[in-house]
Amino acid sequence: MSQQAVEKPKVVLVAACALIDGEGRVLMAERPEGKELAGLWEFPGGKVEGGETPEEALVRELREELGIEVDPGALEPFSFASYGYERFHLLMPLYLCRHWTGKAAPMEGQRIRWSTFSDLEALPMPPADKPLVEALKRKGAPER
Predict the structure, then answer these.
(1) What is the pTM of this model?
(2) Residue 81: what are its φ and ψ, rounded to 5°?
(3) Residue 106 and which of 34, 70, 113, 136 are 20 to 30 A apart at CA?
(4) CA neighbours within 13 Å on the CB side: how many for 77?
């Protein structure tokens, strides 16, 4: 019997961040029109490029997407998502961050909003983000 090779989807590493302000709200970003999963709300972040650590990718992405500066030491590893989409498999570490420089603003045409933990579950999100919201609510994203 011959086995046919089954092509496995590519694993994509994306780092994400739960930015938590002084009022305990979390910043969420809406995926803009023209992008896959447009209109859904997600934790800000992006793909980890070759040679980058997830922390370096987040510092870069948060600067590009939101115009804020984050010290890598302010990123606290929290949880991760592993989710099989049709065209790829997403592996996404989620970091918590409570300290940054600058005021978060949408730099790439996306909408952003600050949401309480209880408001997060009402937002339409990509399937990979939903368990991360549950982890935030369950663990309460405690202070270090």
Answers:
(1) 0.89
(2) -120, 145
(3) 136
(4) 7
* Residues constituting the chain: 144
Q: Of the given ranges (75-79, 120-124, 134-138), which has the lowest mean pLDDT?
A: 134-138
**Chain centroid to CA 41:** 10
Domains belonging to the chain, first-starting first, are: 10-139 (3.90.79.10)
14 and 90 in contact (C-beta within 8 Å)? yes
CA 1 to chain centre: 44
Structure token pair of residue 33: 């029109």
